[in-house]
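Most newcomers find our protein records easier to grasp once they have seen one. To make this concrete, we reproduce a full record directly below:

…
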Amino acid sequence: MKKTIRTMVWVPVLVLMVGMACQFSGGPTPPRVVPVSTEQAQNLSKTVQSVKPDPTSGNINITVTEAQITSYVVQNLRENYEPILSNPVIVFQPNQVELYGTIQGDAVAANGRVVMSVIVDEQGQPLVTIREANFGPIPVPSGLLSNLSAAIDRSISDAMKNYRADYKLQSIRFDTGIATIVATKK
């Protein structure tokens, strides 16, 4: 009798869990197709390496496309984050960046979206604010967003260590499909 009661309790719980896992399989998708290629990733590297200061202002202007940054991320993702995030797509919208991809958990995979805004502080450091994130159809709690923003800020700061001695970041501007970065040589 006890075994029958346990079975009666576990079967609905199991059905509910399977139903929730199926719900997670959906989620946000990018608003447009962003082509990914090795060529685009190489174009980004060439653009960064060949940048020269403007003779009149001394500013360095770099324009990056969604295809370039997405291709670069896909190429470099395999080394560190592929078990967690796959099929990443980065979309530039006015005043924000959106990251889409499939997020892998232990037993669940779902499409996810992270919406970020980026400002540059007085010291030339980019500061990322995650405004919204979704895992499948479920929004990520705001308490986790601030922790994620801080982790991204640290990653960007570490990545910029080599350039900080020579350049000061002035601004980052996002428009549909492109980002423009302005820096000055110290």
Summary: The chain has one domain: 27-185. Confidence is low (pLDDT under 50) at residues 1-9, 13-23. The chain is about 40% helix and 35% strand.
